[in-house]
């Protein structure tokens, strides 16, 4: 990894003076953006019938270019097979497939996943991955804002994955020791097993909190037989659309195309289990 400041300037295609201009007033390189939360091409609606919104901080200009370069660099750091969010070649369908044929499920959503990651955690992660203290310091300043990770920056998902990695490893090892399958999709944590593990849920939540992450209390769900995992219904050997989306297959082209993706995923899963490759 990058250990000297001259090498960092070269990697970012910025002079020291140009970099200092960005860092001296980094706030002006961010644009606050409010967008509707969308699922399957449609706005998400809350219990009161109102559209749900997401607050983003979107970088612009030379900061955006720098963050894109940082993202490309950090994507080279290997992550375990059980991590699926914002990783090239992976997606939420592959994530959900891991839990097919299981009987008991636990899903946990982490509260304010990006904004709860601090500049200290980012710096520590970079330093632990071979960056020098000085380059870690500069990279942290380029990728955080007001001491936390901004949602909307191109570098934030890969950084979030790497910061969460130690906690994910702990959850995976805990699951493995109790015959529980675990996968991670950014803020979505999914667990499944052939055996009931409801009595272990407090220990799983404790492990997350000890990693300085926070489960969203109204988004902790323990299910039997079927479960929604990263937007898909997992039941037996099949993935399926959530019920309200199934009703729109014939009228919504986005949903229709998505349903075909799921159908193909189910075919691949059946083929792989027959061949013993899954």
UniProtKB/TrEMBL annotation:
Q: Specify the species.
A: Panacibacter ginsenosidivorans
Q: Does the keyword Thylakoid apply?
A: no
Identify its protein family.
Belongs to the bacterial reverse transcriptase family.
The beginning of the lineage is: Bacteria, Pseudomonadati, Bacteroidota, Chitinophagia, Chitinophagales
- Keywords annotated in UniProt: Antiviral defense, Magnesium, Metal-binding, Nucleotidyltransferase, RNA-directed DNA polymerase, Transferase
Q: What InterPro entries would the database entry show?
A: DNA/RNA_pol_sf, GrpII_Intron_Splice-Mob/Def, Rev_trsase/Diguanyl_cyclase, Reverse_transcriptase_msDNA, RT_dom
The name of this protein is RNA-directed DNA polymerase
* Domain Reverse transcriptase residues, every copy: 48-233
Which molecular function terms from Gene Ontology are attached?
metal ion binding; RNA binding; RNA-directed DNA polymerase activity
- CDD domains named in the record: RT_Bac_retron_II (cd03487)
């Amino acid at each position: 990894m990058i250990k000297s400041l001259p090498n960092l300037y070269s990697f970012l295609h910025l002079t020291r003076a140009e970099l200092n201009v960005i860092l001296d007033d980094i706030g002006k390189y961010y644009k606050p953006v409010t967008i509707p939360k969308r699922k399957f091409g449609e706005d998400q609606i809350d219990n009161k019938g109102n559209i749900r919104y997401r607050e983003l901080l979107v970088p612009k200009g030379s900061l955006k270019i720098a963050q894109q370069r940082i993202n490309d660099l950090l994507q080279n750091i290997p992550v375990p097979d059980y991590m699926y969010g914002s990783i090239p070649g992976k997606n939420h369908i592959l994530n959900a497939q891991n839990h097919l044929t299981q009987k008991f499920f636990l899903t946990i959503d982490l509260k304010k996943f990006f904004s709860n990651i601090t500049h200290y955690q980012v710096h520590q992660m970079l330093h632990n991955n071979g960056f020098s203290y000085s380059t870690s310091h500069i990279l942290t300043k380029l990728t955080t804002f007001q001491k936390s990770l901004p949602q909307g920056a191109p570098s934030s998902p890969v950084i979030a994955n790497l910061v969460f990695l130690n906690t994910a490893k702990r959850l995976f090892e805990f699951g493995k020791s109790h015959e529980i399958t675990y996968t991670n999709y950014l803020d979505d944590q999914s667990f499944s097993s052939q055996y009931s593990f409801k009595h272990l849920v407090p220990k799983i939540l404790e492990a997350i909190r000890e990693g300085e992450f926070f489960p969203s209390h109204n988004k902790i769900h323990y299910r039997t037989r079927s479960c929604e995992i990263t937007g898909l219904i997992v039941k037996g050997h099949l993935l399926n659309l959530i019920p309200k989306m199934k009703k729109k297959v014939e009228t919504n082209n986005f949903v229709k195309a998505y349903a075909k993706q799921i159908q193909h995923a189910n075919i691949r899963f059946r083929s792989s289990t027959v061949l013993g490759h899954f």
